[in-house]
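Weekly puzzle thread! Below is a chain. First person to post its structure in token form gets bragging rights.
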Amino acid sequence: MIEIRNKKDCCGCEACVQRCPKQCIALEEDSEGFLYPEVNKDICIECGLCEKVCPVINQGKPIEPISVFAAINPNGEIRLQSSSGGIFTMLAETIIDKGGVVFGVGFNNRWEVVHKYAETKEALAEFRGSKYVQSRVGNTFLQAETFLKQGREVLFSGTPCQIAGLKCFLRKDYSNLLTVDFICHGVPSPGVFRQYLEEEKIKVARKGRKNTVSFSSKSTSVPERDMLKCNEVEIEHISFRDKTAGWKKYSFVLVLTKVTAASEKIQFRSRKSLRINPFLRGFLKDLYLRPSCHECPTKQMKSGSDITLADFWGVTQLMPRLDDDKGFSVFTINTDKGAALMETVSLKRYPITYEQLKQTNSALYKSATIPQNRSKFFSSKDLSFHKRIRKFAPIDYIKIIKVFIRRFI
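Winning reply:
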């Protein structure tokens, strides 16, 4: 049976939970806000299926892609809504046109990041844009298996470890399955993100009457009496990669509304760049990545995906004339199945070498280093999220000034 002795040995893909024939595995949240499987030993029949579908136990082999290309979606609006160049939407639309199903990541009604599926092009909009929180896979592996057995085309997208988990879960190759992952830096804690949102809601609840305003990220304590104030405030929109100020200087956008005693609805909007927003600062410092991300089982393209997507950060150096700071994608074709799909997608592509990709996207082959302050961050439970970020991931004004000067020159 699955027994997690070291938390780095579980990537949280939920394959074991979904494959268990006795449904005796449940997910429990730990003190860091991550979910881990717990087995009810009174019900377990020791069939071993949970271990057979674990992508950490059953790791794939490193591979090199068949080919690598840079490209953008010719639809400027979709490109703007996407984190990079909007290529995923083009792949997904191709599957929808065939009457297929696309699995991606969106938000539920509690603003938790979850996997779900879409059967229309309109529904694909929710999947656009990065979500820098580990998603709940839920029962989507089972749903995908059902669609595959019905003979429908299925595109399943996710982190490399989630794709590896799906492959292990299915335990056979389906000709009608297309898997797409991305070059993953690591997945932040859902529990930490939840605390961040709660504190932002409390700050808005405390504010007086104003029209649309911006609010700061100063430290905020969260006493018990203030938790009820969260009910006065609703989240309307979250974007981790808003490109209003440019692709390379993306921002975290949070829109909340507060209903006053007079039933007046007031909107509060926050837009802060990646080096200013507190949640993104902690993410970029690797403060609250899942432990398995520091020893990722799927680096070097071990996930078995057909296509891998990423931001093409090397466009500035390799193709400066094409860089309009609106977002550029790079994708690797890893299988013949992936190559066949890309042939049906009409877009202009620019070939680059695998070595060039590795030089500009080190997360392809290198796990995130455990930061010195990670344990200190999680042990400081007496402090609010904002206070912990100010302490362990302060704003680097010197770096901001250097980046500004370099871009100006």
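Puzzle host: Confirmed. Bonus trivia for everyone else. The longest strand covers residues 233-242.
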